[in-house]
Amino acid sequence: GDSVTQMEGPVTLSEEAFLTINCTYTATGYPSLFWYVQYPGEGLQLLLKATKADDKGSNKGFEATYRKETTSFHLEKGSVQVSDSAVYFCALRGGNTPLVFGKGTRLSVIA
Amino acid sequence: GAGVSQSPSNKVTEKGKDVELRCDPISGHTALYWYRQSLGQGLEFLIYFQGNSAPDKSGLPSDRFSAERTGGSVSTLTIQRTQQEDSAVYLCASSRLAGGNTDTQYFGPGTRLTVL
After folding, report:
1. B101 → closest Cβ in A36, A95, A104
2. Which residues, at least 6 apart from B64, have a Cβ–Cβ distance to it below 8 Å?
């Protein structure tokens, strides 16, 4: 079945550092890919998404590019802030199916 | 407009008791999903309602779990004879469209269930 693998955390960075959280997937067909974020004490929020190969999703300075050839959707941000501290989930959806999530990566940004 | 709401926000129960968790989706959303978030397991799909079609129950972990959606809106997830391994955060999500993989799911804040 479909699956998502993302790098295990926790990831600890200093403010203004570059962030990469790796995500790879296995799916039949052409899934849509998503990054969700869960801030402390809050629910899951959609951060960005890409629906076809070579699409780039972006939001709040975060970017991820749908790479079909490497089945990847790595999350990047050029300069993280303390307010970016959260748990990040990579997910896919193939067809008319529920989301399949990775296990999440906890990011802590220190001033 | 209002987002997805869930109640209660926290529930502590004793092993063997039944619990009901409620989800109010965003008005007009035809699809509703239940997920479970637990340590070590990440986010797991439980059940999916799509309009008036029969629900997809393929993610329910045992026959102690059931869910219904009344009038195409509010949903209730019921866990009978709770076990300690049922302790988790139960998340509900809804989306506008009944099909298609580009549709965005909006999540509620979750219900944290603790089984003693």
Report:
1. A95
2. B79, B80, B81, B82, B83, B86
CA distance B77 to B61: 13
End-to-end CA distance of chain A: 41
CB B57 within 8 A of CB B49: no
Q: Which residue has the higher pLDDT, B58 or B80?
A: B80
A90 to chain B: closest CA residue: B43
Tens of pLDDT, residue by residue over A37-84, are 999 888 899 999 999 999 999 999 999 999 999 999 999 999 999 999
Residue B96: pLDDT over 90? no
By Cβ distance, the residue of A31, A98, A104 closest to B48 is A98
